[in-house]
Amino acid sequence: MDNRDVEHLSKMLSLMLRHRPEEFGVEVDRYGYADLNAVLVALQDRSPSVTMEDVEHLVYEAEKQRFEIENGRIRARYGHSIPIEIDREPVEPPEFLYQEVFAEDLGMVKREGLVPRDRQYVHLSFDPHRETRQGRRGGPQVVVRVRAREAHAAGLAFYDCGPTILTAEVPPAFLDIPDLPPPQPRSSLPVSPDLPETSPDTNKPSAPVTFGRVRKTVRRR
Asked: Which carries the bigger pLDDT value, residue 82 or residue 187?
């Protein structure tokens, strides 16, 4: 499979195992598992060329490790919007974890903390330097730091799901929230003084007006 086929397969599996299994006729249990053979049949209904080898390659070789196979069953490791239960024990997290937040949502985060939006759990990253993504709304994003070990000591449960850590929510008391830089003022042209009235000289060619400053283009970040 080329990269486009792998991406397409990953998106179909995500839709099937994270969000809308009923659309594929697949049954997902309380922990998010579905029968692997039933999943393959459902995939082949949409893309007949998909093989079991393709599915296994995606599960075992993909960089982000979104899925896992166990005892003839397959599930998404994280990212669910359908209700599932976590069947692993809580872990002690590292001192800090991170989440990208839209800048326009920072006020809400300061009031409510980090809570699930379109997922069942809050997804936290180990890496504060991930490339900022443009979400469905677009717009700038900032990184909120979670004092995870402090929150764990206070009783919050954290679950290791490979490339991400899940938790039910993170109250504001355990967040380090950056301040947004003040917006840059828009540049404006200086008001030009009135020119004195002069009698037109029809014998001389008109010259362009050169008073004032040329407006500069400002590239905003």
From this structure: 82
CA angle 66, 67, 71 (to 5 degrees): 160
Query: What local confidence, expressed as pLDDT, does residue 27 receive?
Result: 96
**End-to-end Cα separation, the chain, in angstroms:** 38
Q: Which domains, from first to last, does the chain contain?
A: 3-76 (1.10.10.970), 97-176 (3.20.170.30)
Distances (CA, A) of 156 to 83, 151, 159, 167: 20, 6, 10, 8
120/111 Cα distance (integer angstroms): 20
pTM value surpassing 0.70: no
The DSSP 8-state label assigned to residue 72 in this structure reads: T
Please state the length of the chain: 221
Model confidence at 193, pLDDT cuts 50, 70, 90, reads: very low
- Asked if residues 69 and 56 have their Cβ atoms less than 8 Å apart, the reply is yes
Q: Give the CA distances from residue 202 to residues 87, 121, 199, 206, in Å, rounded to whole numbers and listed in that order.
A: 91, 78, 9, 9
